[in-house]
């Protein structure tokens, strides 16, 4: 035993402190989620068993009942518990119910809106049989077929059928089931007795019309003995056997589609492609049931009836900035009030802005041809309480100068002043940075139909309102679900009355003449812009986002920590002032040394200590000057925070800070972004995700050209940057065209002509097949525009564009809604005026969510990356709790917490809980974010893997193919995410017995990863491992050994031999080697394994192996036949 010493005593104290810290960590840890079985007795005296989790509340139980085939048609009921009593609150935790058994209690329809909700639910349930199926099967080649990507070697081979835009909604359709209800309409004008609300005519599947009356006690049929049923489904089942059978068939189809929930109803028109049933209407907008105002539906959000317009926004936003936030509990309360208030402000502001723009449009239509307002002029100024609304006409030209950003509009400052403001905001940012910036918080920008409306909070704060220090505001209804759907505020554009009869995929001759006239306007705008682009640009201040300053400080603090760890002790005071501040201060330090040397040469008789003392005094006076300068610009609290950070930034002038942050931007931030792309820590799939990744790091989108140059070895990132640059260029052109048209009736033709100019194919013309004038003009303009705005020199990238991706991004940025049709981009005119359905407002505002929740989500991701699963579960559970407490359980901001916790639980092996949480995330993402949102896409992919691990391979295939379709429309086949999805498809295909198909997917995934990421990338190693696993299932263990050896080599080189992933691969290699040895011994004994003939072929290439295993015995020698089969499989 080691002798006792004084060090031992100190170590004992340290041990005690460690024990205290461990106890504190235990207190901070929350209970890990667990599965909960919830038994619910229905009004039919039957029992349903729901799968829930321990974080669920009563509101979640109601959601689960709405996704169960036996209870989905039920509305207007309460839940009771034998201990907790009747009418349980939505906020009661399920885990507190002992026993966990509930009963559904039907309630009276005390309000007409409740009866309307019941009708809307029934219509919504049967909508999947008629509303989402594509109307006709088009023979036009797919959008993604243009560009000759596969021929050019730029893309993977599409093994699955190439998806079509016309079939975008087919995933939600159940067309093979007869609709239980053919039509349902409200009957007005009849006199009602007391307690009756309205009558409805229901045309059921056999054509019979049933007259139903809605009342307080439920629903009953007219002309028979009054017997009320609580739901319409119960009533119709009682009076019609045909309906009963059709409804049962529909429920069986729901179960076959997904027996775990996520029933296909409740959708909103929130995507750039409108549902087929909506687009078929030529005059009125046929809303989906969830948004049908005839049955009590709406586009979501608050303040629809103007009840919040006169709220004292200015006073309450100022109060937000003063609420206590020192502890986590205080921040949760503050963040919740901030979120609810800001969310309500956004809803009210957007509605008021759209209403003001529509008022201006109507006025202009009334005075058409008389009034001519210059671009940029103020057309309307309105004051509603504290809200100031200003509407301006957009500029109908492509200006070479950068357009004003959201922050330029929010703050009347020069670019230099705005940059300095944002920089100081960023370097002093804390968890209250969003809430305390009331100017940014109280500003919304809305672009719509060629106009821009700015809404700002400009109310005066009265003295008496500053005395109250709290904000009273209600929680969001339905747990935060049904947020404002911007697409519900669309302006539906005029459409030809004979949309259905026009048919065809090409414009009629009349439409062609109209399109050609507008095409001339587009070309004129482009030519004018080309002239401006030739002019020398004025040097302008580089903009700065506040996030850049925050990332810079984090970088400095991280470097400081690294230096302390390397040295073993903190740096001295003198060094700590200049450490990590970049080249600027290294130069200053070297200059100081040079001046000392000069002084020594000139005045050798002066002692060194005196010189050092004078230098110290000079430095001190300079520091005090700059310190005083920043003190005047910052609040005392912000300056103290900056001073205590240890970065020394409080001693610098604004000019020095600006120069240094530019150096950080150029030398560290941009290369680090590309490095994260290379490591797949970040993997953008479209322009939206690329924008989010750049903005959160404070990077400007005008740096896309530089990102593309830095990503030269990452073809998918470079392609994504090029697509986004071209999309943004087209956005400017489209906005200019829309702003140049005053007559709304002409907008569809003008927009279609613009899209034809941008995406149509008029490359060659005449008998000599020379390049057309339009093609040359478009190419020349794009080259000039991209170079001027992004610093990118375009070459021949336009030939290889995924035009579907360009179209999707353009519609999202410009607020376009299109008809889901297979657009032939190989034709000169892919679009006709009837394809342009509507214009949707595009809004910009500050996001306000839980600061602690975001931080915990990042901590959970970091712990997961490090393999610290317990910590990842703990952080993820706490993050979910914070997001639910602030935003509500069904708000779109909470979906990311559900999704991350699902992934974490999956890695712990808890596939059941992972599935439940990911289903919640998908349900929210589909309804709140959009059917093709990147988060929705990710939920489909993750959920498919979870279903696969639960032994539901066919269900997994259905969801993974949906993810592939959306990836096809966003980033195309040549992307690491698509390659990873191919590996997942291969696992599932192998599970259902399609081993040859699985190997083809693995082959393409391997080629894609090698081409995009390199032969030695970790993701490439994953492809080799997946192929090794697939080969082992065929008993081809010798081939498995060779592929797994490559896996081990890559992982050892990249991660080291001690990494868990390397050790796992080594264990698999050992297993494969043992099985291969068994095979060899069995072969020597005369007992070969069944598929040893495959292994005996040696190290065949995967493509040759595919030919071997997919050939029939009688055709194995036919090389031609094998090649033909392979071509068929790959199409």
From TrEMBL:
Residues 1-30 are annotated as: Disordered. Residues 1-13 have a biased composition (Basic residues). Residues 291-567 form the Clu domain. GO terms for biological process: chloroplast localization. GO terms for cellular component: cytosol; nucleus. Keywords: Cytoplasm, Nucleus, Repeat, TPR repeat. SUPFAM superfamilies: TPR-like (SSF48452). InterPro entries: CLU-central (IPR033646), CLU_dom (IPR025697), CLU_prot (IPR027523), TPR-like_helical_dom_sf (IPR011990), TPR_rpt (IPR019734). CDD domains: CLU-central. It comes from the Eukaryota. TPR repeats lie at residues 895-928. GO terms for molecular function: mRNA binding. Residues 14-30 have a biased composition (Basic and acidic residues). Pfam families: eIF3_p135, TPR_12. It is found in: Cytoplasm, Cytosol; Nucleus. PANTHER family: EUKARYOTIC TRANSLATION INITIATION FACTOR 3 SUBUNIT EIF-3, PROTEIN REDUCED CHLOROPLAST COVERAGE 3. This is Clu domain-containing protein.
